[in-house]
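Hi Q.,

Before the meeting this afternoon, I wanted you to have the protoporphyrin IX containing FE prediction in hand. No need to reply - just skim if you have a minute. The sequence and ligand are here:
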Amino acid sequence: MENLWLIVLIFSTFFSIFLILYRNYLRFSPVCFNIRSSKHRRLSLPSGTLGWPFLGETIEFVSCAYSDCPESFVNKRRRRYGKVFKSHIFGSPTIVSTDAEVSKFVLQSDSKAFVPSYPKSLTELMGKSSILLINGSLQRRIHGLIGAFFKSPHLKAQITRDMQKYVQESMENWRDELPIFIQDETKSIAFQVLVKVLIRLDPGEDMEILKKQFQEFIAGLMSIPINIPGSRLYRSLQAKKKMVKLVQKIIQDKKESGISNVPKDVVDVLLNDTSEQLTDDLIADNMIDMMIPGEDSVPLLMTLAIKYLSDSPTALQQLTKENKELKTLKDQLGEPLCWSDYLSLPFTQNVITETLRMGNIIIGVMRKAMKDVEIKGYLIPKGWCVFTYFRSVHLDENNFDMPYDFNPWRWQDKDMSSCNFTPFGGGQRLCPGLDLARLEASIFLHHFVTQFSWVAEDDTIVNFPTVRMKRRMPIWVKRKRND
Ligand code: HEM
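Predicted structure with the ligand bound:
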């Protein structure tokens, strides 16, 4: 008898769960979304399938993302349903856009239409006040303040000095009898540069502690969102707490000694703001979040450039020639290279642009619709996510001839500002660090190709959950003679 009750209980629990899932599934299914717009036109969802209840198509998305051709999930559906289609990934019904115009519209919309959407582990670690998650006037204010600071010639000059110093220090230790792991070297250099920009911390004991805690912190960004002692997320949150403490101490010291009117780092910029919206906690939290590109995106830009150049001797030859000529000229004039020198090299910039196109360091961005939105005749229902998938646009043969070939020359007469090329996003949240990323990559490439020749070991690009080299890009270097 007891067993019978148990069976009835288990059965009814499963049945209730199934009903809830199925009701949710129906709520988001196409039949329920033939709604009328204010103009009384019938709007329907883009074609596509939602896959399994709850799981959706996440498993197929992830298995493609780990493969050599991560865009295959999207491209297969794009061929079947068109450039904009519906799916269900990462626990949410999602409209995937590979249509550059639709994506542009989404990115340019304000927070009344779309807000950022990230996996739960990431939002837990970032915290509510992270610039990546906040909306409206506060996001615009912080974005504007840091964007203006990053554009200032004064900061670019400082970054150039620091970058040259850290690059030289790193390269001095390179020997020809041991492999150099480009991904590790660039991570270390770019992290130091960005930490200096953010909180004016120089390499030393505190930097080493920060680096260690930061590793612990980012390990949890794509983890299972369970925050209990011992879990990955818990350890990452603990690491973040320690880093926030360090930044809060820096803020306190600055306040005690008087904040400089001429900002020397991002903390100064935010402390100088008079709006009183920017609390010390908000500033400290954001400094940690903004270290992510220093550890991740920028080093990957440099690493991938070396990867593509290793496979493209003609491009490498032209890049080396351009940089050697600049170096010789500057040596003759007895002048050091300044930031505008680095950015003035057209072929070097084309190499960086082409690396951004092929590398797709950020494959796309996720937003959540705050209301029903109509774009180009498509309906994006309230509560659904939109995934603007840049990778397929960047690798589309209709936009770029032979898209899988590394061809920096394609950018010679091409307009970079087209909506077919969005490695730094666009609209309200266009990456404020884009100039810095290009500058750092230009400086690294200059010093690398003018001082070394190299042979790269076999390695492959892994694209999920973040872009990286499987073996950290080992190369064997040979120092060039000074002639
Ligand atoms: C190769 C290097 C980089 C790439 C590919 C990249 C890409 C992106 C993209 C695609 C976005 C838009 C995210 C969205 O729309 O939700 C973004 C935002 C952002 N990036 Fe970058 N980024 C890079 C380097 C940097 C650097 C060096 C910094 C300096 C701290 C930086 C700081 C930020 C910030 C603060 C945002 C958020 C802006 C906002 O939401 O208002 N990024 N980045």
